[in-house]
Write a structure and sequence with these properties.
Blueprint (H helix, E strand, L loop, with lengths): L5 E5 L5 H11 L3 E6 L2 H15 L5 E4 H7 L2 E4 L6 H7 L8 E4 L17 H9 L4 E4 L6 H5 L9 E6 L2 H13 L3 E4 L6 H18 L13
Parallel strand pairs: 1-2, 1-4, 2-3, 4-5, 5-6, 7-8
Antiparallel strand pairs: 6-7
Helix pairs in contact: 1-2, 4-5
The structure holds NADP nicotinamide-adenine-dinucleotide phosphate.
């Protein structure tokens, strides 16, 4: 994309959304925080603007945020994944839709059953939306700190549409992460499952372990 796209973070008021929002806003992107409630979105947007000493992040209800952006990133609570996408089906037409959902419960850790979250999204949204699954393994704690530093993680990016994946790979890299195309949306189930491994490892060892790919040059 030649001009910087507007990015909406749908459900951007929780743990994962704000770190992504701040990294892209700091790089000059117009970022919209989406929420079920416009006032909550506006409060979080104001807080993130204050942290960055900027004024460009705005808050809106999810539907308005999705309508206003070219790239929409979903970071709603995993249990709300399907219902949230169904409710935004019309607004998301024509967009790149980035699904960060890893359907793994913290208390009952297990890899999810196929289909992947991204495949579910693509089936609901239809061919008019380019779905990309990404960021499922990026801990919010790493995203939110040291905003001027790279995040020590790699992002596995799955999509049926490789061009859309490349757009998201570039976004991840602008946000300070290395990112790799990792196959179609069905491969996303493995990436979600990796989250179960990582949560188990983090509980066992303590810390915020994530993944890095070796043997591939970027
Ligand atoms: N946390 C992490 O470290 C991490 C890392 C990688 C991937 N992820 C993935 O990112 C997604 C978000 O994780 P999170 O930890 O940020 O979640 P979260 O803080 O629990 O929730 C994020 C937002 O989801 C919205 N939400 C909650 N219930 C909803 C419902 N019934 N319908 C629509 N929206 C609802 C809320 O926004 P409003 O109340 O403002 O609408 C909330 O602020 C998950 O799919 C998770 O698997 C998380």
């Amino acid at each position: 994309m030649s001009e910087l796209a507007t990015i909406a973070i749908l459900g951007g008021t929780g743990n994962e959304g704000p770190g992504l929002a701040m990294r892209w806003a700091a790089a000059g992107y117009e970022v919209i925080i989406g929420s079920r409630k416009a006032e909550k979105a506006a409060l979080i947007a104001a807080d993130l603007n204050q942290k960055l000493d900027i004024g460009t992040i705005v808050g809106m209800q999810n539907s308005e945020a999705a309508r206003s952006a070219e790239i929409c990133v979903l970071t709603v609570k995993a249990t709300a994944h399907q219902a949230a996408i169904e409710s935004l089906r019309e607004e998301l037409q024509g967009k790149i839709f980035v699904d960060a959902t890893a359907r793994v419960e913290f208390k009952n850790i297990a890899p999810p059953e196929p289909p992947s979250a991204g495949r579910i999204a693509q089936d609901i949204l239809g061919s008019g939306v380019r779905v990309v699954a990404a960021f499922q393994n990026v801990p919010s704690s790493l995203l939110k700190k040291n905003l001027d530093q790279p995040v020590k993680t790699d992002v596995l990016v799955c999509a049926d549409d490789v061009d859309a994946a490349e757009v998201v790979i570039e976004l991840a890299e602008i946000g300070g992460m290395r990112a790799f195309y990792a196959g179609d949306l069905d491969n996303g189930i493995v990436v979600e499952g990796l989250t179960a491994l990582l949560i188990s490892m983090n509980k066992h060892y303590g810390g915020h372990g994530t993944i890095q790919v070796v043997g591939l040059e970027k």
